[in-house]
Amino acid sequence: VNISILIVAVVIFLLVLHHNFLGLSDFLKRELSDSNPVGLQPIDFIPAVPQRLAYERNDKEISVVIAASDERLGGAIAAMNSIYFHTRSNVVFYIVTLNDTVDHLRQWLSKTALKNLQYRILDFDPRVLEGKVQVDPQKPDTLKPLTFARFYLPTLVPHAEKAIYVDDDVIVQDDILELYNTPLKPGHAAAFSDDCDSTTNKVAVRGAGNQYNYIGFLDYKKETIRKLAMKANTCSFNP
């Protein structure tokens, strides 16, 4: 009799346990069907996304250009990651690099949460700089060809009405669509900061001390510079 009672008790326990598992399974299915993760990325890589991005969608292509040198590849990946996970816009990255970096770059992009990123890899030919850049003979290694990639935006993305160039040490913390929609007057190549007091804008210029305006970077003795009609005290920064 005791054995029969024990068997009945075990069967009842197993039935209750089975019922609880079925209930948990249904609950998890409902949770997964109700969730709306960003893209198809693994859950471990989904950051806290602003609520408005769950329902906003912009199909206009936003061209973002970034230079990715081999020694700073991690920074470039971090910059792209911060842009990608803070927008629902149709961002296409144009990654400017040198030939010896392409294979390494493709590995970074194919084996991380950025595998669904829209991008094109553009090989930058350093020969375009020949005769255009003065090299300091005392510091020949300071000349990095990709530093000058930003000046070739019309060549790199010829079809784009507007493009955003991002340095590889930038982390974007909001939707880049807002920056893209910033109005620029026709013929203007860039928008500069108005904060001349910012320490990040000040650059030491030989013979002139810390400078944070055009006169620190442009030679106003040249007629071609004067014809641009840009005020010498206008706020600027190194690039």
UniProtKB/TrEMBL annotation:
Family, per entry: Belongs to the glycosyltransferase 8 family.
PANTHER family named among the record's database cross-references: GLYCOSYLTRANSFERASE 8 DOMAIN-CONTAINING PROTEIN (PTHR13778), GLYCOSYLTRANSFERASE 8 DOMAIN-CONTAINING PROTEIN 1 (PTHR13778:SF3)
Stated name of the protein: Glycosyltransferase 8 domain-containing protein 1
InterPro entries attached to this UniProt entry: Glyco_trans_8, Glycosyltrans_8_dom-fam, Nucleotide-diphossugar_trans
Chief location: membrane
Membrane topology of the entry: Single-pass type II membrane protein
Organism: Semnornis frantzii
Record's keyword annotation contains Transmembrane helix: yes
GO terms assigned for molecular function: UDP-glycosyltransferase activity
Subcellular location, record wording: Membrane
UniProt keyword terms in alphabetical order: Glycoprotein, Glycosyltransferase, Membrane, Signal-anchor, Transferase, Transmembrane, Transmembrane helix
CC terms in the record's Gene Ontology section: Golgi apparatus; membrane
A Pfam family the protein falls into: Glyco_transf_8
